[in-house]
Amino acid sequence: MRHEMVIEADLTAVAPARRWARARVEDAGVHPALTELIVLLTSEVVTNAVAHSAPPVRLSLDVSSRRTRVEVRDSTTEVPVVKHARPTETSGRGVMFVDVLSSAWGVERNGGGTKTVWFEVEHDLHLNGFVEAAARSL
User: Fold this and answer.
1) What is the CATH number of domain 2-137?
2) Which sequence spans correspond to the domains of the chain?
3) Cis preceding linkage at 56, omega within 30
């Protein structure tokens, strides 16, 4: 099921967007561990959009039984890049988290000076990975 909301281009809009995303994913019955991952990654892409863009910013979630796709469309052509922040830096890790923890991610240029940053989390693949990682840590 696909859901969409408009986000104010202000950092105070990140928390409400995160709560909205959590409710949509939980309503779809996604495993709680995967819900936490999806909400974390959603927070990262929304934060980038509101910090580095101009309105309007649109957040879309498409949740199926197999995967969740999150898209954030904003009003800039600036493309996010994976950075390797030093331990003393207080920011610059969000895209790295999306790169490492999602099944796939990318950027689509929409024309008209806008772009969409998206990521997907495949439910079975990630859930099995979490279970395997938890088993190894025991």
Assistant:
1) 3.30.565.10
2) 2-137
3) yes
